[in-house]
Amino acid sequence: MRRYLGALVTVLVGAAVVVAVLVTLINTARIPKLMAASDAGTYSLDAKNLKHVTLNLQTFPQSPYEDPDWIAKNYPDGTVNGVPIPPAGDNQDWVTYWPSTTFQVPAHAVVTIRIENYDGKSTLLNDFYNKPQGTLGNTITVDGKTMSSIKSEDASHTFTIHSIPSSQQDWLYVSIPVTGVDDNAPLDPAGLMPLKPVVTEFSFVTQGPGHYIWQCFDPCGSGFDGFGGPMSTKGYMSGTIDVV
Amino acid sequence: MNEPRHLLRATIIWLVATVVGLVVAWLLGTQLVNWGTIPAVASNRATDVDQVLGLFALLSIPVFMLVVVFGGYAVFQFRSHGRPDRDGPATRGHMPTQVTWVVISIILVVFLFGYGLVFYNQIQSASASNVLVVHVNGEQWLWNYSYPQYGDNAYSTTLVLPVNRPVRFDITSTDVQHSFWIPAFAVKQDAVPGQTTHISATPTQLGTYEVRCAELCGVYHSYMETPVQVVTPDFFDSWIATLQAGESASISSPMNTLAWMARDADTRSYSAREGWAA
Amino acid sequence: MRKLVPSYFAGAILGAIGFILGSQFVVHFIGVGDEPDGINFDQQSLVIGFIGLLLGWLIGIGAFKYPFTWLLARKDPDHEEEMRLAGKDDGAIRYFRFTTDHKVVGIQYLVVTMIMLALGGLGAMLIRTELITPGAKAFPTGTYNTIVSMHGMIMILTTISFFIGPFGNFIVPIMIGARDMAFPRLNALSIALLIPGLVIFMFTPFLGLVIMNGDGGGVQTGWTIYGTIADQTGVGMTSFAAGVLLIGASSIMGAVNVVTTVMTMRTRGMTWTRLPMTVWGIFGAALLAAIGTSSFSVDLLMILLDRVYKTSFFYVAVGGDAAGAGGGSPWLSQNLFWFFGHPEVYLIVLPAFGIVIDILVVFGRKPLFGYKTAVLGIMGVVVLSFLVWAHHEFVSGWAPEIRPVYMATTEMISIPTGLIFLVALGTLWRGRLWMTTAMLFALSFIWNFLIGGITGVFLSDVPADVQLHGGMFVTAHFHYTMVGGALMGFFAAVYFWFPKMTGRMMDEKLGKIHFWGTQIGFNVAFLAMLYAGLQGMPRRVADYAPIFAGANFITSIFAYLLAASIIVFFYNVIASWVAGEKAVANPWGAKSLEWMVPTPVPLENFEEMPVVASGPYDYGEPADTKIPAAGGGSAGQAAG
């Protein structure tokens, strides 16, 4: 009898070890907090009135956790969208989308995303991505000017939404290039990033509810072909977008 | 019971099991696509591959039953309860059995090799005429496609192919190794940076299928999936024409392609639309 | 306290000091490589730190104690000193330091490989938890890829060592009538390198996951570490490569030792045709390890050079951060890897062939059916295994015209493999089968390896492989051969030789629970995985389409059962070792030499060297139908 009890206890201990490791992994994974799109009234499209929401994003050449002055200036209460800004962590020099990479937008709505890019240029590996695809009018607005493509050398990042393996939700594919800041643009006093970002704005229509992922297709990371480091890690240059 | 009776019994059980197994496999085989056990059969290559897989499955049944039946018979018939008090007979081998086994294995292997070679040659021989060339680019972590025969504007993230026309895929990668896999076509070939690999097939069934990546390529390897849509030749022609007219961006995404199709629903025949799964 | 120097305890402390010295201080004299990531440890200092760790460890466990004494005294060790190095009169501490006695090394290997099995099993549990439902809900995909790579590599390292290590070291020398291995100090060195290699390897998930805050790149390559993605992936790749290089060196040393021992140290009368099949299996595996491992080491070195010094073995330089000159070939890494990778899987399973056959003989109470056939099977696999590697590259685009050649050789290798089944069935037929736990596992090997082998033949056919490669069908196939084959053989070997190695009997009731839980859990889980593979599920994916959900759910649930059963095994091992029923010298009534020596085995194995008069399979002979009394062998091989 004692041997069966001993075996059972050992199995339970083993299960506890697995659970402990799992919990550690879940807690150390950096998944930025959910950011819901802000309401912006309605949008008239093809004689229909659709909900209109916006998302305001930045891209930084390094994580803004590193720059307390910038945080104090832009988020004096230390929170963004009501979520407290986390303390400085590792990977402070990794390029990142900010304030989050986990988004939520409504279904059958027009979503307008505005990206303020503080990062410099890195040539696209694949010219396919220098044109906006799947946006309204198939254009983007860069610093106020409407464009239907940019030069591959001017790209800094892309914002590309694509689907997860599922045949039960509507397909969603949107891709836009994010133009980079000029090489000789003036920098902030800390010398960390440019004074003025390049602003890219675009809109697209969502279909039915679903769970999608998005990523950057520009080689702005480290390692071989620039797709390592932040490009290979969730929460920096890739994330999820839920259409609810 | 003496030796020949045991052998006879086991052989009979083996024959019965083999026949039952073959019959069950044959009957189940026709249902496999309906149950989703194997992917849809949507190209000539997939038909060939499924035939090969089917033959291998049927041939493996007698082999499997041989080992399981004789082994299982021995375990049940010759077991002793607790520590045995005597040894078994001192047979160190039986040359006829050993020779027969080796000869039959060689024959089986030669047959399988020959059979595979026939299909291999059939698959390798590309059609000469009217081949559609599709340039596939694998990139971390999405596929994109272009149709070099139709000019520089003809590129897309959706793969659209006309039914019954041979396709040759020229595949490469801009970063790490990926593998271009269309399960419904039984098409798979690695995308290797710095090299262009090739594979050919002819789609034979209208519908929407998936393209997956079959080589671990990084963080979004699981998500490297795009649709492939097999449409009627007329449809394909008008789609290509729209791409060439410079409106590629409006239809190069799957969502927009579907919307475009819906807009033209009145002018398209029902059978063309039927090939699409929403 | 003095007993702790030298020992593993001192080795651990000195190893830690060595690591800190190497990575933090030495590097300032050599110069720091530039690493644009700006990570905490740059890769060069990490490698130097590992060298420091290795040196500190070896000094701490006493590996240099006698060599330097002899070097300075300029003399060869005499017999007394050899015995002291072999741990004579040292008591239990000899298991925790550099000891040359092959029995001590065998036990050290047994414990270390079981720890590695547990670590690999932890990885498997994490993988199956992620895959139990669609959606990468447990942890992100980058973390998942790292865990998959770790699980694969640790299990490969475990299965490479878990026959040659414990049983090749402890049992084989006694089985052939030798006093020790041919190179006792090399033997101690091989286990002394395995442990730091494992420690260095286990840096990987931390460098990638915890220290880097989130799934910081990690090692997203799979254990196959193809050149392009290995060059790109996170900093954990460095510790991965360094650890495996070290373990590969340990493996080559062990293999060379086994080959030399079997070839030169068989006792008088122990001809090649009287060797137990276990020896043939382990000998064949050692040949494969000795010849093939260097190819893998070269691949790892090239990856390290590409990453740290920006050479271009695999860089194709299409853009981004590739500072190398470019012109590299991704196919080079595949060929180097698989030239080792394929013989390597046979190296894992060949000892299982030999051991399972021997166990069937002992518990079937019948001679081996077809000795020469079995030898032909094992050596046929050894030769052919070097000729089949490109079947892993059927869809890689490399040299497509010669694929039929590899299809032929791969299908041919099923012939010698099939001979093993012939021998097993013939041995069982009309025996008197004693269903101990060891026998049950040996029987399960037949069923599981049959399925593994048949699915392998499916994959050997090029048209079929085009559809099945890179999917879960492949994963299920190799788990059937590695787990259902080699791991079951390992369990059988442990239950069989535990009485000889530890002087205790393992608990048979727990053994039956372990057996049935393992078989049901393993078979249902991996049959479901075969199904998912047929459906078209790719492998190494953290997230999958809903049609695969049913098969994956079943696989995960039964994998939990499998893991629980293996934990029962670990408990059985530990509890029996500590408080099991004491074993007699020959509890199974077997006839090979290792059962003719007393338990515990004396330091030099034999009082006088045995002279062998016949093979170990003399069951059922008219003069000998009574099983020898359990207290020791009267009949059998030793005639001296």
What does this entry show, briefly?
The complex is a heterotrimer of chains A (244), B (278) and C (640). Chain A is of the alpha+beta class.
Which features characterize this protein?
heterotrimer, A: 244 residues, alpha+beta, 2 domains, seven-stranded mixed sheet, 2 helices, 15 strands, globular, B: 278 residues, Immunoglobulin-like, five-stranded mixed sheet, 6 helices, 45% helix, disordered C terminus
Describe the protein in words.
The complex is a heterotrimer of chains A (244), B (278) and C (640). Chain A is 14% helix and 35% strand. Chain A has helices spanning 2-28, 68-74; strands spanning 34-36, 38-45, 48-60, 79-80, 83-84, 96-98, 102-105, 109-117, 140-142, 145-147, 155-163, 174-179, 198-205, 210-215, 238-243. The longest helix of chain A has 27 residues, at 2-28. Chain A starts with a helix and ends with a strand. By secondary structure, chain B is α+β, with helices and mostly antiparallel strands. Chain B has six helices and eleven strands. In chain B, the strands form two sheets. Chain B has a five-stranded mixed β-sheet with strand order 4-3-2-6-9. The longest helix of chain B has 34 residues, at 44-77. With 640 residues, chain C is mainly α. In chain C, 64% of the residues lie in helices and 0% in strands. Chain C contains 20 helices and one strand. Chain C has helices at 8-30, 43-61, 65-73, 79-85, 102-130, 141-176, 184-201, 203-210, 227-232, 236-264, 277-309, 330-364, 371-384, 403-412, 414-428, 437-460, 462-468, 472-502, 508-535, 549-579, and one strand spanning 433-434. Classes of the chains: A alpha+beta (244), B alpha+beta (278), C mainly alpha (640). At the B-C interface, helix 2, strand 1, helix 3, strand 8 and strand 10 of B face helix 6, helix 9, helix 12, helix 14 and helix 15 of C. Strand 1 (79-80) of chain B pairs parallel with strand 1 of chain C, so a sheet runs across the interface.
